[in-house]
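Box 3.1. Reading complex inputs
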Amino acid sequence: MRLPSSRHLGLAVLAAVLVLLPLALPGTYALDVLTNVGIAAIVCVGLNLLIGYAGQISLGHAGFFGIGAYASAILVTNEGWPPLLAMLAGMALSGLLAFAVARPILALRGHYLAMATLGLGIIVSIVLSQEVELTGGPDGMPVDPFTVAGLELTGPLAWYATVAVSLLAVTWLSLNLVDSPIGRALRAVHGAEIAARVCGVDTTAYKVMVFVLSAVIASYAGSLYAHFAGWLTPDEAGFLRSIQFVTMVVLGGMASTFGAIVGAALLTALPQFLTVFHDYEHVLLGAVMMATMIFLPRGLVPTLATRCARSGG
Amino acid sequence: MLEVRGLVCHFGGVRAVDGVDFTIPERGVHAIIGPNGAGKTTLFNLVTGVLRPTAGEILFHGENVAGRPPEALARLGISRTFQNLRVFFNMTVLENVLVGRHLHLYRGALGALFRTPRFRRSEAAARDFAEHLLARVGLADWRHRPADSLPYGALKRLEIARALAAEPRLLLLDEPAAGCNEAETREIAELIAAVEAEDGVTVVLVEHDMQLVMNVCDHIIVLDHGRKLAEGTAREIREDPRVIEAYLGRAAREFAHAAGG
């Protein structure tokens, strides 16, 4: 029983880090940055299932993030829905949209799949910009606080705790899925697709499932973000946001759940602490992506893990 | 069990399989032999859905399954190994066999995400079954190793274990003893005989090792240039002049050609 124990060990380390971080980095600003890290990490853990395990690229996942964020913003702020219900509605909408487009989109490969998902994300962000009545257009819209049963989620520590628990839960679900017939089937497709099919694996069905799951997770993170930030613009659903998510996954390490979290942490926190990163974000994202592909094609965490294992054993 | 009628598969102008008919009855170990390029592997690819036939019928238990995808044929109980290894090198040995067990597992997404008791029971049973199979092919000690760390002969046996994990009714083995030494070949012959006798699996193998074929096979089909040349028991095939010509004749001609040129 080697795998379950490594899964629990990883979760325990993640939980310890999530508890220790606010102690090591106190203050409202640091907590806000950490909360943003957590939200991006939730998206990346889901996206890694699609990119790292199913081997399918998506350059449009910010679209699902945006659908969740705006579902919460519009339904809660304009329509007065309970935030939890609005969040679930956003997840359902994202899931349905992902399911509807998954079969035609996932039938495409390589550049064509990248272009199709790119188009999907751009359509979502254009709709959000154009529907000024609903969304406030490019100027954005305010979002009411998150309340459950009359209790308002407020203050940086409460937000950090909520996002940290969410990240732990999503990580647990992701690790469970990877170590199941579904996760093994997806890895088998990477290893030798024809042999996987001879074993009875219906590859298309699993690709569709993971696409939907990653969209629902992105939508959930989007809803959290909308209430946390309190102000939403279509940029959150934009092309650059999608590229950020993909770069985080690739940098941290494809097919590594903890790698996705490390990638999200680095690329969310660095721009906050290094203003130069903020000014040249496009250039630096491109540079990070290229450098990763050339020097660390497997990403940070898998490469380091192999090195440690080699020097240790 | 398996009946092939007028099976044709062309690649452009190459007639890899050119009108083949044969019947594989239930049970027994059957062999398909023939010189290189005779169409043996293409035939396996057609029967397992990896390739679509140009024409002809493949009847499995009386049902025409020609042109169905591999995953559909796997559900009917057809399993195989590959001549050029198709191991999942990105996974452990045990995980490879678990993928072979795929169709027997509880595969619900919610069960997997939340590790329900039903899911955990299914996984635990699969691990027991897979470890039992790995012990049977002599790979028990390797089960947690990455598949890419195994030597060639072990990978051959891993593919057999993976195919057996599906509990197939028809098992196609493409050169199971290729690249194996004498002792390994003997072990594989014993394994094949046991799979037929104890598990009741109908086995069809493509093999160049004639000693293995003559020892374990009850029924031999000889292909040459995409057509069936002969069919019969080991003794009949050994004495068939057409088979001798196809094998020895060609070798003799090639020898003469090489000597002359």
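In summary: The mean pLDDT of chain A is 90.
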